[in-house]
Amino acid sequence: MPNQVALITGGATGIGKAVAQNLVSFGITAVISGRRQDVGDAAVAEISAFAKGGAQVQFLRNDVVVEDTVKSMIDDIVAEFGHLDMAVNNAGISNETGILTQSSSQNYRDMFDTNVLGVYYCMKYEITQMLKQGKGTIVNLTSIAGLNGIAWAGTYASTKHAVVGLTKSSALDHAAQGIRINGVAPGAIKTDIIARQLEGGDENYNEASISAMHPMNRLGRPEEVANAICWLLSDEASFVTGHVLSVDGGYQAK
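Below the sequence we write its predicted structure tokens.
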């Protein structure tokens, strides 16, 4: 797939970085975004080692909660490369666990801004550009928490349910316009988010207990989710839209 350009939000760490590594290895230019310049610069150096076929890697400092800067980011990509072929809306946060009555309203607002409005803003301007081109493909990151109720994660789960709704409805809106929109719903993956949650010191919330939620009895790896995302982005999934692909060690089969 020569001369294609992909945007990966939250692309400097975890699943996003694994997606970028995968894409550049196929000769696809990866533009990764995130809030921390130092982390982004380090990720560019790491991802570039995988690049083939003239693929480039760039980092754009951006916070998806600010609509104007999301629009500017996509405008800048198009100004430089002329098109935006793929987008992975991966930026997301999980900032607390607990029952609803214990939750912080501000924490919920912050999660909603990033996980829902951030995806909405990105999709809005990605689709606008893809309509001009007459083609494009988008993958949104949801979660097992976007398909199920998850104890002690009601606020987070609600944001990921919203992403599923945005994904499926927008896929229907643009199915006949050359734009495919899908989602991936990972189980627990060894990323920074999980690592921070495990540092909380709750004896009932540890790697063994989280692994036991999944029939495969382990955490997933970022590259396992990245492989699924890259398949959905590719022409091999040309008849797939509006689908949320579970990558969850069998969780949905229970």
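The first strand starts at residue 5 and ends at 9.
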